[in-house]
Amino acid sequence: MNVYTLLELPKSSKGFSSISQSNGPRSGAQLRKVARTDADLDSASASRSTGVTSGSSRIQISGEGFRPSVLPDPFYSIRHNISVILTPFKQPSLIESYEAVSLRARYIVCVDGKGEGLYNLLKKELEVCMKDKVLESLMKDGEWISFMGRMCDWFHGAVGLLQSLLSPLDQAYVPTVKGTRSINALAYDIFNDRIFGHAGVSKQLRENLSTWIAADRQNSSGERASRSSVAHLLRHFIAHDVYFGSSQYEQYLLTSTEEYYVALVATLNHDMYDDPSAFFEIAYDLIEAEVERAEEVFPPQSRQSIKETTIRALFILPKVAGADNFNDNWLDRLKWLATPETVKAYVTSNRVPTMGKMYHLLSTLSSVSGSRAPLKVLSNAWKVYIHVFTSTGSAAPDLEEKMVPNLLKFREQAEGIIDVAFISKETNKRDGDFSQALSDGFISGFKTRRVKPAEMLAKYLDGMMRKGQAKFFESLSKSNSADGDAIAGATQNAQDTLFHSHLLQVLGLYRFSEDKDVFRTFYHRQLTKRLLLGRSASSDAEVAMLRMLKEQYDSEFDMGETMFKDLALSTELMNEFRNHRLVNGMSDDNLDVRVLQRSAWPFDVSKKQILIPDEMEQQLSNFATFYHNKHGNRTLDWDHALGTMSLKTRFRSPGKDVVEKELSVSLYQGIILLMFQEKNKISFLEIRDVQHSIDDDDLRRTLQSLACGKKKLLLKEPPGRDVHDGDTFLFNDKFVLSEEGKKAGYKIHVNSIQAKVSVKESATTNRHIQEDRKHLLDAAIVRIMKAKKQLEYEQLKSQTIEAVKRHFAPEVEEIKSRVEALVEQEYLERAERVPGQKPMFKYVA
Questions:
Q1: H or E stretch including 528?
Q2: pLDDT in tens, 241-296
Q3: CA separation (Å) from 746 to 437, 470, 651, 707?
Q4: C-alpha dihedral over 720, 721, 725, 728, to 10 degrees?
Q5: pLDDT for 31
Q6: Where is this region: Disordered (predicted)?
Q7: What is the DSSP letter of 605?
């Protein structure tokens, strides 16, 4: 042992005391070790005298002929130790301690200057180990996955030990020689080259991994490595840098996964072609199982790739060989899977969460493909489903009254489906495409049904705005038990809030209608009836409603102001009329007249006047005289179609006391009831002969309201819902004994036909709307051509659509027809056609 070795020992060693007297000189002159202190260090001398050591001591080595490289064959023992360490699965039993091996390495590198020799020795031993030990062991073992994992564990430990014992190589030799790798890099490169780079090993590993995954997918009962063993091996792949990359194990596993599911889905698609919903359920379960396996086996970096590969293989048609992008028909499988029919099946069978699963899978596909095309397939199916229901639901004439309630319920359901199934994971908000698809589906559905949705919305709002909010809530409760429960336990303020909320829901449907003019016209007519028949909840509510319609929904909704002004002036006029009668000593006859401007109210005055009793005729004459004295230049035209009256009626039931009731009826109903004062039984033909000025349809419906409704003031023979020419009517003295009569108070209101829109009135109104549209189109076309002087037909068409879109969305054929009509009327003329030029029109001044 030499002094350098002694000086390298740690503080816990015996130091110089370990040198025995028998140790002689190895070569040259005898070495003399003299320990002495500097004469000038008084503190050291003082400590010697007291036996206490303090401070530092200087040691000087003297002697001649000393050479560091006096050890015979310094690589012999270290070669043996490296070979022992590189023996797989054996506890290293070295011929000297780890400390001695480390010191020997330091001596060779730092003192003897033979770092290159030690480095080459290590490299050679690693090569021999890979070839004669590791590779041979692998080829003998049949269970590759677990054995390779254990082999990598051993190799990792062996390399770590070599790094520790031969650290002088990494510290002193490798940094000084350019291009030299560290011990760890050298060992792993040789392992990768000789083991993972070996064709036989690579083949066996890939085949064993494929076999294991196939058995795990099929849940085979045969013996196989555990999932943890496979995960352990893949972690070693990552450590050896052979997992990631285009030609590495990850890519091989992804490719084999894709091939497996492509083959599987071809079989499933063939067997389940008629049941796409069942196919999706199976495919989703397969994806869930693959994701679960990936969570347990694959590294985190690969899990999303495994999921995306599985989804792509199951739902997208494979690429054509050699193609860089997807096929033109790559979405065909999705189009087969996500159809309006499957969407409907999911909704009707209450499987909305399943549709949410489909959305998230297609969202993943959109991310993989870099296109929203997969999600567009589902959103288009959703749109068509909305369109089909909106355009066909409650389409039958006898179901039209239920159209709006059904649409409200359907829209609420559809909005709920979006909140459950179509929420983006990125934003945690609704997917805008599906909200837009909902709107587009309603708009196209409304357009398919033409003017009917706008008409029915106006009628439904009329029912809401009539006097008697309680009746509206009652009907709402019958159609929806949940709403009924909410209304029953609600306070007045809560009911007002609920009413307003429902009103906004109805107006939300109005936004989907392009037939603004239809809604405007029918709402205007219904508003007129509510105001004149006294059926409105309140004038303030009506004014607020009109203001909201104009400000938030339709800027052209400007009717109403003149109507309310007429009503206010009529109230003042009637007060003056009553005062006039009192001043002149005339009795109050309870007459109430509404004087209206014809231009502000949507009704034509009937040229025929109904026959009314003389007393009523005299009252009207008195008012006409008063009015003409006040406004001599104005003309009064009486319109009794929307008139009302009150009758005091005495019911004389046999054997019962006379019961007096006050009947609130329309003027038509009232004059028919007055006919029964003189005669108890009258035929339909007699009534028609007397009241021949009343339209036949109105007369029949008036008699229906009196004899066929809930409150049967008349009895019809024979009984039935319709009125025929041979029917006979009798006054019902026993009405007060009926269930409805008993429930009624002193004042009985009988629903009038005038308050509702008849089929004939609806058809007439729609016919007028179509005529108005023609005039509106004509005016728009002439206005455009007057400004432009000359336009191509396509430009004229687009500008005309833009000009009238606040009123309605015209069909192309309508525009074409009006252009032709204006050419015939010489407002426009065709420009001379130049070959290759589109049709052109000129304005004729």
A1: helix 516-533
A2: 999 887 789 999 999 999 999 989 888 877 888 888 889 999 999 999 999 999 99
A3: 54, 20, 12, 20
A4: 50
A5: 44
A6: 14-60
A7: P
φ, ψ dihedrals at 829, nearest 5° = -145, 155
d(CA 830, CA 819): 10
Quote the tokens at residue 603.
């009704």
pLDDT of residue 356: 93
Q: Please give the pLDDT value at position 3.
A: 46
Place of tokens 């990850």: 250
Low-confidence ranges of the chain (pLDDT < 70): 1-74, 141-142, 220-223, 318-328, 393-399, 467-471, 473, 475-490, 588, 605-607, 753-758, 845
Q: Are 703 and 714 in contact (CB under 8 A)?
A: yes
Q: Whose CA is closest to 451, among 380, 400, 377? A: 400
Whether cis (ω within 30° of 0) applies to the bond prior to 718 is yes
C-alpha 210/C-alpha 224 separation (Å) is 12
- Which burial class, exposed, middle or buried, applies to 670 when counting CB atoms under 10 A from its CB (0-12, 13-18, 19+)? buried
In this prediction, residue 753 carries a pLDDT of 63
Q: Report the residue count for the chain.
A: 845
- pLDDT per residue as tens digits for the range 620-630: 888 889 888 88
Is residue 824 helix, strand or coil?
A: helix
CA–CA distance, 548 with 542 (Å, rounded to integer): 10
Whether 182 contacts 118, CB under 8 Å: no
The answer to whether 111 touches 105, Cβ cutoff 8 Å, is: no
Residue 789 C-alpha from the chain's centroid: 48
